[in-house]
Amino acid sequence: MSGKPNPRVGLFVTCLVDAIRPQIGFAAIQLLEEAGCTVEVPQAQTCCGQPAFNSGDNRDTERLARQTIAAFEGFDHVVLPSGSCAATMVHGWPDLLAGDPDWAARAKAFAAKTHEITSFLVDVMGYAPQGRRLDASATYHDSCSGLRELGIAGQPRALLSHVEGLRMRGLEGNDVCCGFGGTFCVKYSAISNGIVTEKAEAVEKTGADLLLAGDLGCLMNMAGKLHRRGAKTRCFHTIEVLAGVASGPAIGEEG
Amino acid sequence: MQTATKTPFKDRARAALADRTLKLAIDRTTGTAETKRAAAVAGFPEFQAARERGRAIKDHVIANLGHYLEMFERNATASGAQVHWASDDAEARAIVTRICLNANAKIVTRSKSMLGEEIGLPHALADAGIERVETDLAEHIIQLAGEAPSHIIWPAMHRTREQVADLFREGHNPPPEAEDPATMVQSARVQLRAKFLGADVGISGANFLVADTGATCTVTNEGNAELTTTPPRIHIVTAGIEKIVPSTAHAFALLRLLVRSATGGEMTQYTTFHCGPKRPGDADGPEEMHIVLVDNGRTRMLADEFREMLRCIRCGACMNHCVVYRQIGGHAYGGTYPGPMGSVLTPVLDGLAASRDLPNACTMNGRCAEVCPVEIPLPTLLRAWRVRSWREGLEPGTLRAGIGLWARLAHRPRLYRLASRIGVRALRLFGKGGWISRLPLAGGWTAYRDLPRPPGRTFMEQYRARQKKGTRT
């Protein structure tokens, strides 16, 4: 539970959410406010730097990390609707800046108050959604960075259990990578295709109406493959369901 | 040095992806390995504690490597073995070949050893005109096929039973009478038995080198190591210097991790400690025992960010759980060691310029590190290679230019927002409905999947507009 009754939260809207699926950002604001937070979206934010970080370009990542840390330092918490971007900030940035006497401590302090949204809602705010209903069956994919770097597994499931009418179905290989991997899916697209094809087959096998996950990158990959295969599975970010906006268009559906 | 095949990684990967039989074979074996490992770990409540102990043992040895190697040499020599030091693969090959030629060896039996592959021993023996007989069943299969191992635990896992039956029909005299595993194994046994007894030299690897006794330890499930190392006049062990452990108890601590992680078993069928050659009065054993301790880049790793890789006990769990390995198999990696551990080691052995694709061809999903019995942070080490590759200018110019342009924007939030606004509008031109199915410059994506078409206004635009109107959400 939070130390403060109405913490000030800086929302980091990931680049994919900003460009491809803005309603995830608004769902985040809604849920955070329902949980009792005051939410702001600092304008000095851009990206967590993963394209550079995972390409081995430390210099640009460090520069971006300093810029973002400075922009969010005044908040009680920094929250992101993505386990992968959160993991970069929580683990990647402090490692990168560990040798920088001016920034090492700031990066650590920043990391300590940075959270992926479902874990923040459950672990920090003790939040549970009220009065949500969605009559559908759904399956959940555990995105790798959130799962392995931040230990996110129980939180989204706990939150989803409060949505009336939602029937969760197990997904075989739920913790196996979907093959997105940031730039990997473009640089090694044929291998990525093999991986996401198996994931799509597993999702189709569940027969669930919806596929949910906590990272838009993985979701775009899986949704794009499912659509190419002609599958009827509709894809949503977990927090879209929690905010009650999953009655609207799914990823790739015209609104 | 084991030279990577000349075809580029992506071509090798593409060929592997097109081979459906290969995929079937990989899925059969890695799928079973995954299930068995999970069961073995679940049935071993102290697994995490054992893992931490294993890691601590390896870290201690790595920090005191010189001390334990000297202790090992002293004790191995006292037991009658001859210890040789090889700084690289060429030197290791030369030492082994010289021992064989001095002994006037015609036939050499070999028990599976990845280090032997690493130093290119099969070729060296062939060049010296010595007949090499692989005695591990899987190695026997790939020797008949003229191939290299594709996995460090199951070297022939890329071959289906049906393919093995074909190889045996052609390579065995007489050919096996049926295709069932029992008949085929029996056929291999008949082929190998004569070789076991007629070999002049037996060459094995070592899973552990025990410093305080000078013993080498080998584990197999077939007993072929015992038949390789005992009947011939000469036994040669080739081992990497990182295989050292302080005592037998430490070897057992690591064995419990190794076997569970590798095959999901609790013990291997055969765990043998060799301590020197035959002594006067001994019923059997070789007359000479030689131990070749190979560096080949390992001391270099001691001093850099890849030091933790020296903890590796070669169990193969990382590759069994790797989504990339499970798509392309081991041969596509092009080095001796495939999968995540191979992607860290191959640049050490073959040079980064020849293998920069390997650390890049990884989704960084972290499953390999999750199952590693000695907690090697494989994704971190793979990223360390990417950093080095970036720093050394080995990454392609197009990628550098793309990241450079992106970084210039990302460092300027206002400009970045403007570019995003323009970007999503431009992106909308390429699709109709909710999806984009063809996109220039993103062929890698749209060749295989559709891209959700963005709604046209970025989050930041919509958010600021709402703020101006005074509504927050």
Structure description:
The complex is a heterodimer of chains A (255) and B (473). Chain A is an alpha/beta fold and 255 residues long. Helices cover 48% and strands 14% of the residues of chain A. Chain A has 13 helices and 8 strands. In chain A, the strands form 2 sheets. Chain A has a 4-stranded parallel β-sheet, with helices on both faces. A 4-stranded parallel β-sheet of chain A has the order 6-5-7-8. In chain A, strand 7, helix 12 and strand 8 form a beta-alpha-beta unit. Chain A is globular, with a radius of gyration of 18 Å. In chain B, helix 3 packs across helix 12 and helix 16 packs parallel to helix 20. The longest helix of chain B has 23 residues. Chain B has 24 helices and 12 strands. Chain B is elongated and about 100 Å long. The N and C termini of chain B lie far apart (62 Å). A 6-stranded parallel β-sheet of chain B has the order 1-10-7-4-2-3, sandwiched between helices. A 4-stranded mixed β-sheet of chain B has the order 8-5-6-9. Chain B has a two-stranded antiparallel sheet with strand order 11-12. Among the domains of chain B are: 254 residues, 3-Layer(aba) Sandwich (Rossmann fold); 72 residues, no CATH class. Chain B is α/β, with parallel strands linked by helices and 473 residues long. The interface between A and B is large, with 71 and 67 residues. Chain B: GO terms for molecular function: 4 iron, 4 sulfur cluster binding. Chain B: It comes from Paracoccus alcaliphilus. Chain B: Keywords: 4Fe-4S, Electron transport, Iron, Iron-sulfur, Metal-binding, Repeat, Transport. Chain B: InterPro entries: 4Fe4S_Fe-S-bd, FTHF_cligase-like_sf, Helical_ferredxn, LUD_dom, LutB/LldF, LutB_C, NagB/RpiA_transferase-like. Chain B: Pfam families: Fer4_8 (PF13183), LUD_dom (PF02589), LutB_C (PF11870). Chain A: InterPro entries: Cys_rich_dom.
Task: Tell me the span between the first and last alpha carbons of chain B.
Answer: 62 Å
Coarse structural class of chain B:
alpha/beta
Mean of residue pLDDT of chain B?
A: 95
**CATH architecture tag of the domain at 46-299 in chain B:** 3-Layer(aba) Sandwich
Structural category of chain A? alpha/beta
**What is the rounded distance between the termini of chain A?**
37 Å
- Strand content of chain A is 5-15%
Number of strands of chain B: 12
The multimeric state of the shown protein is heterodimer
Tally of separate helices of chain A: 13
Low-confidence stretches of chain A: none
Largest contact between chains: A-B, 71 and 67 residues
Strand order of the largest sheet of chain B: 1-10-7-4-2-3
Main CATH class of the domain at 46-299 in chain B: Alpha Beta
Organism (chain A): Paracoccus alcaliphilus
GO molecular function, one term (chain A): oxidoreductase activity
Protein name (chain A): L-lactate dehydrogenase complex protein LldE
Pfam family, one (chain A): CCG
